[in-house]
Amino acid sequence: MSALPPVNTELELTFRDPAGELRLTDGCALRRIRPAAEKETREFLASSLRKTLEQSGDLIFSRIAEPGSHPCISSGEFWLEHPRIDPISYPWEWTTAQWRAAAELTLRVAGQAIDAGWTLKDATPLNILFSGPRPILVDVLSFERRDPHSSVWLAYGQFVRTFLLPLVAAKYLSWPLQATLFARDGYEPRQIYDALPRWRRLNPKLLDVITLATVFERPGKPRVTSKKTPSTTDPDLARHVLQKRIARLGKQIRYAAGERGSSQWSRYEQTAGHYRPEDVEEKQQFVMSVFARCRPEHVLDIGANTGTYSLLAADAGARVVALDSDSAALEQLWRASLDRNKPITALIADIARPTPAAGWRNREHLSLLDRLTGKFDLVLMLAVVHHLILRHQLPLTHIAGLCAALTQRWLLLEWVAPSDPMFQEWLRGRDDLYGHLTEDDLTRAFAPHFAVVDRAQLGNGRVLFLFNRLLGQNDTGVPAEFQHAGGSTA
Amino acid sequence: MSRVKLLQIFPVVLILVGAVLVFERPAYAYADPGTGLLAVQAAGSALVATGWYLRRKIYSLFRSGDAPISEPDKQSVAIESEDSPNP
Q1: Which chain A residues are closer than 8 Å to B35 by Cβ?
Q2: pTM of the model
Q3: DSSP strand pairing (A298-302 vs A376-381)
Q4: DSSP structure class, residue B19
Q5: Which end is more exposed in chain B, N or C (fewer Cβ atoms within 10 Å of the end residue's Cβ)?
Q6: CATH homologous superfamily for the domain A268-487
Q7: In this predicted complex, what is the ipTM?
Q8: In whole angstroms, how far apart are CA A400 and each of A76, A165, A207, A451, B62?
Q9: What is the least distance, in Å, from the CA of A79 to any CA of chain B?
């Protein structure tokens, strides 16, 4: 299995922090620390706080990079090396439960930092990545020494805007968390205040962050202190105040994240009437035999739903990326992978309309396909192809091209024939267009990229195909008609 | 005014006082602290601080009388016992 494909190391991924910048290479992430921040960073690396956080898995491992170990490191510069977390996931791809886990991690770290004499200078979901199902803080430069007499957490505003208010907006205004793609620094209290009905603005649990924050907003210039003015608060009181603040935020996060949701698709496994128990059994047996035969290391499960097959893949020893557009179903998968400690990264995404590139110059945050292309040796497309054909009206040849871009080797696809009740349900009067598709159409469309290696017919008429990708088009196996559509990272 | 009404109004007054008192904006922040949220935090701090000082006063009264203290916030008591009581 090839190593991670090289990312353009000219790409600066972070640039707003005056203390440092981040670059990605094949095997690791490199962070350059600017001279002004070097002393404090070294102190943090030597601290017991750092050891505790690394051991608990809340903070990413750091190592001081040897000069000359990487081409971008010149002597005299101070660089840190971190393991790469792959794939990167962005907050707009997380479920509510993942968002809440990231918020609680931030608060936990902030609380521990306060007790140890440090503080977080920023608090945003963009500082968190998911390593499998576990959130992990990756911004080591967030830590700075705390003034023991100050009872103000300067990152509080950012935490509320970027972690809490999007959850509130999702709960009361149905603004999806995905919309934060366009809000780098979250939502302002005033935005939420203006959108809420009057009676909701008085909710005592959120009164301070929505209504009071809006009322106390001061546009224009208040008196500004030109340097750090030492406050005289008792250090014990300052600590107590900060911990109380953290505790209240924790309660507010839990309140805003709300109950687990259910949806049509998360009840899929129980209500899927088009699968009899023996069909499910047969399908699982075939899938497991494929895993045993192919021994995949990296699996992409498209349309993973509640994750039955992602979990089987993880049990078979693979690292899995699971995609689905249904948040409630994906949340179940995420919880299961967390409970069972399986290396499954769950992302909300619709493969037919994948997450675009975002941020500064559209290069700060990579598109989903840029992050996924060429990384998997087996792709699962179970009970998805009829959705792509009927709901997204994609020709089979295009679907084949996408699959060829995503997998290095194997593709396990479930064909749903027009006679199938689910196909009929989505057909909706377009019989002329799609009603006559056959298995032969499928194999013919996939033939330029794939060869059929195995086939199994289920009792309910669905057919499972194991395809092997043909090489020889070009190095990456990306067919020409797909390259301009962003399927390549070259 | 009844005692109950006073108790209800008191926190709101504290919040408003706290908000007015701390309107200085620090110049050394990294993430944008936000003017409204900064004021809310300051007001909340004033509230917590008042409670903290009040509890200390009550403990110091009790300690001189050697009465047993049953209080969930035993941490504050532990800290108290190391400091000399405030005049």
Answers
A1: 216-219, 222
A2: 0.85
A3: parallel
A4: H
A5: C
A6: Vaccinia Virus protein VP39 (3.40.50.150)
A7: 0.82
A8: 51, 41, 52, 12, 79
A9: 21
